[in-house]
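Allow me, if you will, to draw on your knowledge of protein folds for a short while. A protein sequence and the structure tokens that stand for its backbone fold form the material at issue. I would ask you to consider whether the tokens describe a fold that such a sequence might reasonably adopt. Thank you for your consideration; the sequence and its tokens are set out here:
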Amino acid sequence: MRARIILVFVLLAAVTVSAQTFRGTILGTATDASGAVVAGAKVTVKNLGTGLERTTETSADGSYALPELPIGTYTVTVVLTGFQTFEAKRVTVDIAGERRVDAAMRPGQVSSTVEVSGESLPLVETTTNDMGGVLTAKTVEDLPVNGRDYTKLIFLNPGVAGSPDQISDSPGSYGEFSMNGARGRSNNYLLDGTDMNDGYRNDPAINEAGVFGTPSAILPIDSIAEVNVISNFEPEYGRNAGAVVNIVSKSGTSGAAVAAARRATSSSPKGIGRISRTSP
């Protein structure tokens, strides 16, 4: 009997705990002009970069949630007979983020549309208490990062302190970086949702200098869509107690290919070159 109770508890706990993810969520509540919840409304989200569409309906309490959305910019549409169509444009979804889009439904014809800009929606994360930040490709594309190494971007986040050598990890050193006082060897590195931790040093397996000082694999900045570095995270990540470096690579959208070249010039500071970009 005791074993059965324990098993039931474990199953219930498994249902309530979210899995780690490199995607995002759009959620919210639909209400009418009086503030009453609107149930049964059709909610559609569309990725502007790929054309991906997902649909759901608001529940009895007016709420909805569309999880596991690839990062990008979306249009959110809420439709129900007797109300004007609600449409929120350019809603940004980041890595492992939850973007709230509440729909204020107005009486009228479905053919009429109430438009809301994504920039006017609340930017404060109200569903989690993670500490850290997200760096997008747009943010870092023109930064003069030596070697075009994504690990340099980690230090742009608040609370991050580098290892004493400030170069790379070495035997007996402190790890790549420390965040908010956690151990430098307690970080967890994820690439497109997969583990990319080096089992020997607990450093990133990509762009790692390794024993002989030569990386076995290179992940340039221009191949990265977003980097999310967080601490004080929810238990779904597990593994380590330090920071989580959650990386999503670029894929699936239409755009020009780019090439970057680092050239030393007399007008550039020592060690930093100009970045030139070309597109076909």
